[in-house]
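> example.struct
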């Protein structure tokens, strides 16, 4: 098993765990976190699109990373 095979399994698992935690927080704060909710939805859609063919390309991985950075930026706005 090489690192790429581990990434194929790890990325969806870590994303699911992250989304479970964030959805609990979103339920507690409701409307004040709609921007974060939108960014998370876009991240999930990118991951689903990339995982459809079970073959992540470098372009898809970079796109997922960019979406994740958008999620982090939106979360930082909520903290400030």
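> example.seq
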């Amino acid at each position: 098993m090489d690192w790429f095979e581990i990434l194929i399994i790890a990325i969806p698992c870590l994303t699911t765990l992250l989304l479970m935690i964030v959805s609990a927080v979103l339920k507690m704060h409701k409307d004040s976190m709609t921007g974060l909710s939108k960014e998370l939805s876009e991240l999930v859609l990118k991951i689903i699109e990339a995982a459809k063919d079970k073959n992540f390309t470098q372009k898809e991985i970079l796109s997922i990373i960019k979406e994740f950075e958008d999620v982090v930026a939106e979360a930082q706005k909520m903290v400030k």
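> remarks
The chain has one domain: 3-79.
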